[in-house]
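BUG: 3D viewer hangs when loading the predicted structure for this chain

Environment: internal workstation, default settings.
Expected: structure renders.
Actual: progress bar stalls at 90%.

Input used:
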Amino acid sequence: MRKKIIDSAGEQDFNWLNWLLRNKNWQLLKTLACIVIVGYCIYNGYLVIPDLNQGILSGITVVLILFFIIGNMVQLIKDPVLFKQKILFRLSILYRSFKLVFIISIFLLVAIYIMIATLKINQDQRVLTMGSILLVYNVVMAYNEFKILQAS
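Structure tokens produced before the viewer hung:
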């Protein structure tokens, strides 16, 4: 995109395009574009920053989410090629881990239902099946992030 802007600025006398392409001005434009896109997503509800319960832990969680978003924006602006490679690497690991989560979840569900039938427990009141599956998913995702950090 920058190369096309340079070519069009060279063809005609656009001083403001030449100013835009100098040193840090291009970085500032990319930063502004990222902020506008994130602001648009927040405004339309595509990106929701949780309120949680307004406690100290909730505030820390929101700050960590914002830190993650801002860190990714900075990384996207500084080195978009490396950012793309990291995202594709994460997506490939995520794709491979779906198999593992599915298999572990099925075995966990079967074990839970066998235990419920054996002990004659009321399932609706005692066992949170979706919570168990979510726990398996989070453990696998934490393991994936650990593998990503080791690969870096």
